[in-house]
Amino acid sequence: MRALRRMSVVFLVAFLASACVTIHIYFPAAAAEEAARTIVRDVLEVQDPPGNEPGAAPEPTSRGGTPSSILPAVAWALDRLVAPASAQTPDLRVESPAINRLRASMRSRNAELAPYLRSGAIGFGRDGYVAIRDLSDVPLRERSQLQRLVNEENADRRALYREIARANDRPDWETNIRETFARVWVDEAPSGYWYQDAGGNWRQK
Predict the structure, then answer these.
(1) Considering the entire predicted model, what is its pTM?
(2) Scanning 1, 14, 155, 190, which has the fewest C-beta atoms within 10 Å of its C-beta?
(3) What does the domain layout of the chain look like in residue ranges?
């Protein structure tokens, strides 16, 4: 019986070791969404409701069936193999002079864009940018100004996604960051704003 238990431990350690070989630094989706939500709320001047912080998920616990004599070996394996792999999980950095300038620029422009977002002349595209939706109610004399605002906003957004990727030394994350922001812009948009769904159709919140 002891020999069988030792073999089980050896097998478990070998399995964990082989699993660790395939672990890579991955895009931190949850951290990116949290950062995007903070930035979007700042730009749109959305108030964060108190007590809206998600609770921490309970840690899984081991339940019955594992002989007590094996547990120390399992703990050793997890400490030596899983912990170093977990250390490869990156934090998402969203603070830099360039990022702060872009946030301030977008925040100051929001007051000019808001009336057009409320009227439905423009909306949040599915690609993370602002898009022209319907200019029929926009006076001719204002249309060139609106187009300029949209172009400037999209230039800032494009630069923001790129700068966040650069701040983390992961330019390959730019697409993931843009896609994350695209969802969060819609999530945080005030009621009445227009947005594009996944199929490119315009809908109103």
Answers:
(1) 0.71
(2) 1
(3) 97-204
